[in-house]
Amino acid sequence: MRKKSTDNSERQALQTEIQEIIAALLVEGPQPAFLAQFIEPVETFVLARGSPESPRDLVHAAAPQRLSGELGIEPDRPGPERRKAFADWLVSPDNPLTARVMANRIWHHLFGSGIVATPSDFGRAGATPTHPQLLDWLTGQFIESGWSTKSMIRMIVLSKAFRQSSAPNDEGLAKDAGAQLLWRFPPRRVEAEVIRDSVLQASGRLDRTIGGPSYRIHNVKKRYAQWEVVNNYGDQTWRRMLYQERMRRVDDRIFTAFDFPDCGQIRAKRPVSTTPLQALNLMNSDFVVRQSELLAERARSERGRSLEDQVTRCFELLLCRQPTTDELDASMAVATTQSLELLCRTLINTNEFAFLP
């Protein structure tokens, strides 16, 4: 009887372990998703005045006619062949529009504005390119690289245009205040995600774990109208903002002020605004207050009791440089009369922290 009891205990322990592994895989493993229902292609017609009861001309599989979109495929071919024909046309060297749009978007994400300022509209309603020959050349390079985004980014960030200073001068500002002609690197504010993750990185508390489930800052409700932010600064939320679970039409009370997009909208590019709420959130939010405390603790632990060394370390962690003499004197006064934590919050609020120089 004792042996049977031992066998049952071992079996129960093994079953418990198996169930724990299954539960972990359900959360961290590949998630099943319903993408589409495969059906035989049906005939499609041009509908008179948009009415499905008034079909007219039969429409065959093709790309836009204005773009010479003849796919060279029989009308009755199955769906997979239609999709392949369209994909081949989309990336064909005879159709440079796809590569032009992609090259422009890469430039847009690196410089803050594309060579064509309307990245999703290359038509008559869109903006004209500031450097059309440059865009043509980049398009050719993109195709020759095998459509490699990494290769394009490497080439652009090593260029003189990207590496030049953003410092202004009177002559340049008079002729081209927006720096569209690239006489200097156009200064721009970084995205909301970059600001938040940079604060966590400076404090040393950024969770760099890759993959796995997202973290949530909202409560659990059945209707969108009931979503509320309940925790946006606890240690369980210190992963990269890429992994934050976002709800449509819900303000996260901190970084939505920095033009973080609403998940219910589609935008070609994010707007960039400047509002008092941004400074208030970076000074008084629970997230920033807590991270400033941790940042000050890190500076003390790494630089000992010298307040001057602690202040210098805060500059290094947040701004990646040492303070000038004037900055050090002013910062020492704040840290002495107020606190090192307040100095950290002040540095987080500087343009140098939130903008690419």
Question: What do you see in this structure?
Answer:
- This is Protein containing DUF1549.
- It comes from Rhodopirellula sallentina SM41.
- With 357 residues, this protein is mainly alpha-helical.
- The protein folds into three domains: 44-90, no CATH class; 97-175, no CATH class; 187-209 and 251-357, Orthogonal Bundle (serine acetyltransferase, domain 1), CATH 1.10.3130.
- It is built from 14 helices and six strands.
- The chain has helices at residues 2-28, 79-90, 97-111, 132-144, 149-157, 160-163, 170-175, 192-203, 276-284, 286-303, 307-319, 325-337, 340-348, 351-354, and strands at 44-47, 55-59, 188-189, 215-216, 244-245, 355-356.
- It has a two-stranded antiparallel sheet with strand order 1-2. Strands 3-6 form a two-stranded antiparallel sheet. Strands 4-5 form a two-stranded parallel sheet.
- Strand 1 and strand 2 form a beta hairpin.
- The protein is globular.
- The chain starts with a helix and ends with a strand.
